[in-house]
Design goal:
CATH superfamily of the largest domain: NAD(P)-binding Rossmann-like Domain
CATH architecture of the largest domain: 3-Layer(aba) Sandwich
Strand content: 15-25%
CATH topology of the largest domain: Rossmann fold
Shape: elongated
Structural class: alpha+beta
Oligomer: single chain
Largest sheet: 8 strands, mixed
CATH class of the largest domain: Alpha Beta
């Protein structure tokens, strides 16, 4: 049974029943057509906005007492600004093509927060719109106008309330690529999948011909049951079933990429290359570079210290883009040689896999503009024993 829509919550239904123009979208509650007085004593209309603290359609108490406002700064009927609610006036986008100008702060008397969304929105509506009565007694926020629901084209099965709570929905849109591929769902690739499925990519394509077996469970996100392991599912099917609970657009490809089918990678916006064989890395990287498709390649080399009986090694993230790709052969092993022999010893640890994946996804997010990127670094390594993170290969800056 699907969760009840947030719009049917008693708090929001009460606002609707009283005639307010209520709108719910992108994890926010909006009340439109709130009359207010500007500094010139002209009556205008604005919108009050608050993020929704929800869990699968159920509204929890508001996380704070603040709201946003679209429009000029509201004033008393005399034209003097209502200072009691002032917090900041800093225009920003809450999501694409929706802008707010002000942030208000007004705690309920005797409390630090409002118990529900009805009392929160009602308090701000009255503070702002009551000043209008001295100028236009007929002005009212209760228009009984019905706002038609906007069809949700999100890839997620429920709102990304983490982004709306942090006010980064507009920034997260930068990650909304159409098609991204993950080649290889081993320890690092599976953690890459875990991170990118929580972004608004329309389609995430998975390429791997292996089955998900017992040893995979110890370097993969989550916890697989014995019953699941006994099924010996293809990795791409196992992970698709897990992440389809959260989102749409996961496309499994139960196969290895070879000379015969490498063309399947044509047309992708970005590729995460998480393979452990040099010749395969060479085949795929050369194809992607010829197609001018940006990608991130990951690698990990762990060794047993013969005397100290501990592990040493590094993890590597190397990005190739149309703007910079000549460095790639210097850093990514592409021959079936000693470097790959080290990897075949299968010394992998989940935390290093997760770190390698996190560095790769951070690199992709910098490429997208989600994170600030001052140097446009295309190669990063982390060394375990020195705990050092190094950067190299920057656009327009030659390697030393």
């Amino acid at each position: 049974m699907s969760p009840k829509p947030t719009a049917l919550n008693p708090d929001i239904k009460r606002l609707l029943d009283e005639g307010y123009e209520v709108d719910v979208r992108n994890g926010y509650l909006l009340v439109h057509s709130i009359p207010y007085v500007n500094a010139q004593r002209v009556v205008l209309a604005g919108t009050i906005v608050t993020d929704l603290n929800e869990n699968v359609g159920e509204l929890l108490p508001p996380k704070d007492h603040q709201v946003w406002f679209t429009g000029e700064y509201p004033c008393h009927h005399t034209g003097v600004p209502i200072e009691a609610i002032r917090n900041t006036s800093n225009p920003q986008s809450l999501w694409e093509e929706f802008h707010v100008q002000h942030r208000f702060s007004n705690k309920p008397i005797g409390f630090s927060n409002y118990p529900d969304y009805y009392s929160k929105m009602k308090a701000y509506i009255e503070i702002i719109s009551n000043e209008v009565k001295a100028i236009d007694p007929m002005a009212t926020p209760c228009t009984f106008k019905v706002i038609p629901p906007i069809e949700d084209d999100s890839v997620f099965n429920y709102h990304d309330s983490a982004s709306s709570r942090a006010d980064i929905l507009a920034i997260s849109k930068k990650l909304a690529m159409e098609r991204v591929a993950i080649v290889g769902l081993g320890g690092t690739g599976s953690y890459v999948l875990d991170l990118v499925t929580k972004t608004p990519i329309r389609e995430v394509h998975l390429f791997d011909g292996d089955a998900f077996l017992q040893h995979n469970a110890f370097r993969a996100p989550g916890a697989a049951s014995k019953e699941i392991l006994a099924e010996k599912l293809p990795k791409v099917i196992y992970y698709t079933q897990i992440y389809e609970a959260m989102r749409r657009g996961i496309v499994p490809h139960d196969e290895y990429l070879t000379d015969e089918n490498i063309g399947q990678l044509a047309g992708f916006d970005f590729v995460f290359l998480c393979v452990d064989k040099g010749p395969v890395r060479k085949l795929i990287s050369e194809f992607l570079q010829a197609q001018q498709i940006p990608f991130v390649d990951v690698g990990m080399e762990l060794l047993m210290g013969p005397e100290a009986q501990n592990l040493i090694g590094t993890c590597r993230v190397t990005m190739s883009t149309p703007a910079k790709f000549d460095h790639f052969p210097r850093h990514a092993p592409m021959a079936d040689d000693v470097a790959d022999d080290l990897y075949r010893k299968n010394i992998q640890v989940a935390d290093m896999n997760a770190l390698n994946a996190a560095l790769a996804v951070i690199q992709w997010k910098r490429f997208c503009g989600f994170y600030q990127d001052l140097f446009q670094v295309h190669h990063t390594t982390y060394s375990i024993n020195s705990q050092s993170l190094t950067r190299d290969e920057m656009v327009g800056i030659p390697a030393e």
